[in-house]
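Justification of computing resources. Each target in the renewal requires a structure prediction run like the one illustrated here; the chain below, 184 residues long, is used simply to show the kind of job we budget for.
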Amino acid sequence: MASPDDMVLVARLGRPHGIRGELRAWTFSEDSEALFEAETVFISPNETGPRSPYTVRAARVAQRHVLLTLDKVHTRTAAEALNNHFVWVHKNDLPALDDPDEFYHHDLVGRRVVLADETPLGTLEAVWDTPGGPILVIRDRSENREVLIPFARAMVELHTDDVIRVSPPEGLVEATTTPIEPGT
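Resulting structure tokens:
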């Protein structure tokens, strides 16, 4: 089985569709291609729990979500048991990116984050997809703090030197900083 480090979170399952076990999948990006290209998805009850493999038998777009038909899920009851579970795919199943300015969020995780004047902020731990747009989650373990910065082109510069430079408005870093427990 694939290592958790080789997988990418792509969707969250919603309530069943119909009586034959079809599942509503709410993707975390506008592009749901990964669910159409993957032969196998991995499903977990939460973002850190064990991931069980399921073969994708069919995937189709329906309004603002994707309808998935998976092996081992043949009834509405079986589908209901997976409501609110997370869907992962192997990184190799992600579609290739054509534009050099495009990237996957997981490719940014682990990069150093600095302010425009090179003051270190920490390391990018995650990118949260929110209705208002992506949010960078930056952790500074030496200062035991977490900083949230909107991922907006006006504020964020990506460089090939594996550094993310941010230029937030005055006061934003202080307003979005929260303490974290040492060792977390």
